[in-house]
Amino acid sequence: MKTVKNPVNVTESLIRILKAGSCSSRSGKSTLTYHIGCSAESDIHFRVYTNTGSGYFSREWLALNTILELLAKVGKSFTSFNLQPLFRGKSVNTPAFLLAVLVEEGLVKPSEKKRCYELAEPSAFMDKIKPLIDSKTSLSDDDKPQKAMKKKASSDKKSSPKPEQDSPK
Question: Residue 81: CA atoms inside 13 Å, Cβ hemisphere, count?
Answer without folding.
Answer: 5
